[in-house]
Amino acid sequence: MDSQSTLYIGTIIHSLALGKLEVLEKGAIVVGTNGVIEKVVEAAQVATLKKSSSINVVDLGHRLIIPGFVDGHVHAPQYSFVGTGMELPLLDWLNKYTFPSEAKFKDPVYARSQYRTAVARFLTNGTTTASYFATIHLESTKILADIVHEVGQRGIIGKVNMDRNSPDFLVETTSQSIKDTKEFVAHVLGKRDPLVQPVITPRFVPSTSSKLMTSLGEISASHDPKIRVQSHLSENKNEIKWVGEMHPECGSYADVYNQHGLLHERSYMAHCIWCSYGERELLRDKGVGIIHCPNSNFSLSSGALNVRRMLDEGLKVGLGSDVAGGFSPSMLDALRQSITASKMVSIGQGSDGDDLESPTAGIGSIKQYEALSYAEAFHLATVGGAECLSLGDTVGNFLPGKDFDALIIDPKVEGSPVDVFEGDSSLDIFQRFLFLGDDRNIEQVFVAGKNRKTQKLRDMLAASLK
Ligand SMILES: Nc1nc2[nH]cnc2c(=O)[nH]1
Ligand SMILES: [Zn+2]
């Protein structure tokens, strides 16, 4: 314990394994000045620790202390049109709304103002870690990384690559895309901020040529550790058909990424709703994370992922908001909708496919495909996401040695959407927050030991209202 460690006292709830919550009523977390968790103690030990003259004591009373949320897949520029244009399926939605909107990020002044609002909104909702897609534009993507750094969010940021099948107002040449990606990676690594990291981000197979994908795989592999890779995979049936026509030489959609060196233990793919058993085996064997984005999957009528099967088969799974395919910036929404999606699967309405070679085939059997519990969904929104993003040793729960990324939840805040009744247990209150709560209940947002929900952050949000 260093001389200025801080003792945060409150009701601690975090996930130790899928479906396994630990609850410490009036427990405490000791955090060093470097923002790292030194120990977690039960109520009985708190009094002794409090007596230590060298420790700062922060008594949070009735509040809950929970890990920060990990949004494994979010498009920062798409926050500009969030909650609008929700009536089309993926490929039409991209052409009608997404591409014209992303093209505006060519202008760095516009990008700065949009990105400030978006990042502030995600952070204020308790997203302590986000894996962002930006756009193809180098300057504005650097600005996004600078803003994430400035507000102190943990962010993984990707310059999007698009050199084929894209409108002429949102396309780059192969060589420019490679050059700008290298420059962006150098820009982010040059910050020497452990909270902000680059990620290689081919938009998806239809918009990234073979030559570009191969070069991106090489850029990822040329660093130690490898630069992370994120993209979209098997989200929509027309998309999958199109990829099949484009790459008859590959065995499957996932195999296209694999053959271009883009699947490894630091890769994670959004959606994967319609992946075959063979693809799921490939993803598991390569250590690729699956980012389940249920709001987007419903909103773009893509399908309901069989998340239980992914977990049973040993894949890493996290959750994503996929703004603006998904209409909510809050991971509470992703958590709730992941439960709804898994309930659809459990009643025989999900993405079963005719996947007979799978040992877990036989969808429709409610017994075999149990819906996610709230504790499991919470695990995916915290630990699961951290593991997908290769941050499992750093965040996700409160094990000593990890960074203190935490939310202080006040269920009784003035104007709270959550009612607390006499006799409620801590877990009752926690569940009510998960299902009914919102950012009003999220009083403080700690990233690496510092509260980032500051007046400055509120001012950033207020600025967008002017
Ligand atoms: N949901 C979603 N899927 C995509 N596939 C390619 N681009 C996108 C995108 O921006 N959003
Ligand atoms: Zn997406």
Summarize this structure briefly.
Belongs to the metallo-dependent hydrolases superfamily. ATZ/TRZ family. By secondary structure, this protein is an alpha/beta fold. Helices cover 37% and strands 21% of the residues.
Which fold name fills CATH's third level, the topology of the largest domain?
TIM Barrel
**Rounded mean pLDDT score:** 95
Q: What does the overall shape look like?
A: globular
From the 3D coordinates, which CATH architecture of the largest domain would you assign?
Alpha-Beta Barrel
Strand content: 15-25%
Structural class: alpha/beta
- How many runs of DSSP E, i.e. beta strands? 16
Number of alpha- plus pi-helical segments: 15
Q: What is the count of distinct domains?
A: 2
CA-to-CA gap between the ends?
46 Å
Low-confidence stretches: 362-367
What are the main properties of this structure?
single chain, 466 residues, TIM Barrel, 37% helix, binds guanine, binds zinc ion
Description of the molecule:
- The chain has 15 helices and 16 strands.
- The strands form 2 sheets. Strands 5, 6, 7, 8, 9, 10, 11, 12 and 13 form a 9-stranded parallel β-sheet that branches.
- α3 crosses α15 and α4 runs parallel beside α5.
- With 466 residues, it is of the alpha/beta class.
- Helix content is 37%, strand content 21%.
- The chain folds into 2 domains: 6-67 and 397-456, Urease, subunit C, domain 1 (Roll); 69-350 and 364-389, TIM Barrel.
- The longest helix has 17 residues, at 108-124.
- Bound molecules: guanine (GUN) and zinc ion.
- Zinc ion (ZN) binds next to β5.
